[in-house]
């Protein structure tokens, strides 16, 4: 999938070196409110995502700059529930230097088009840490609505307890969300 300066390529082990470099751009694994693999664990994480793709529960992608093939992050359709025609957009992160540049909007447009238009999903969910204010603002800018907060939802790798904010976009909202994403991406050019 490609558009607006990015390509979403099926994640494979050849992306590991680029993803290590992207994660080092900002030392993203040090952020307490998200889970970005360390350089040492990147390969294991990519292999785990590939296994989940084989099981049909995830569609992981390397986020690459168009024309270069350079990996600058990861995103996915995860927790795929084909029977109920829904999934979550998650495990998303980008090199710090690419945050706030329109990459996120472009990736979300591609993933949501795949989910709603190609796969006929009725809902797409987004989840983030209560304290990840940047991610929450980005999700809200997409037009997703907050469904609720899962309190004491997860124990993070540092032992802290995460409250998870759950958002979603439903199929009837998708045309307006798509139009707004296209408008935003057009103004970035």
Automatic annotation (TrEMBL):
<feature type="domain" description="N-acetyltransferase">
    <location>
        <begin position="7"/>
        <end position="145"/>
    </location>
</feature>
<dbReference type="Pfam" id="PF13302">
    <property type="entry name" value="Acetyltransf_3"/>
</dbReference>
<dbReference type="InterPro" id="IPR000182">
    <property type="entry name" value="GNAT_dom"/>
</dbReference>
<dbReference type="GO" id="GO:0016740">
    <property type="term" value="F:transferase activity"/>
</dbReference>
<keyword id="KW-0808">Transferase</keyword>
<dbReference type="InterPro" id="IPR016181">
    <property type="entry name" value="Acyl_CoA_acyltransferase"/>
</dbReference>
<protein>
    <submittedName>
        <fullName>GNAT family protein</fullName>
        <ecNumber>2.-.-.-</ecNumber>
    </submittedName>
</protein>
């Amino acid at each position: 999938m490609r558009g607006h300066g990015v390509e979403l390529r099926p994640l494979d082990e050849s992306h590991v070196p680029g993803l290590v470099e992207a994660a080092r751009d900002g030392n993203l694994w040090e952020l307490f409110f998200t889970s970005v693999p360390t350089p040492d664990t990147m390969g294991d994480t990519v292999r785990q995502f590939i296994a989940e793709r084989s099981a049909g529960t995830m569609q992981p992608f390397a986020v690459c700059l168009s024309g270069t093939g350079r990996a600058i992050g990861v995103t996915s359709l995860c927790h795929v529930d084909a029977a109920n025609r829904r999934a979550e957009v998650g495990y998303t992160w980008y090199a710090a230097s690419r945050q706030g540049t329109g990459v996120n909007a472009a990736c979300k447009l591609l993933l949501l088009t795949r989910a709603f238009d190609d796969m006929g999903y009725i809902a797409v969910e987004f989840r983030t840490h209560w304290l990840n204010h940047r991610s929450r603002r980005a999700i809200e800018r997409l037009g997703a609505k907050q469904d609720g907060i899962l309190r004491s939802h997860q124990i993070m790798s540092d032992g802290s307890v995460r409250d998870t904010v759950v958002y979603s976009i439903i199929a009837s909202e998708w045309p307006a969300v798509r139009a707004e994403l296209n408008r935003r991406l057009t103004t970035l050019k």
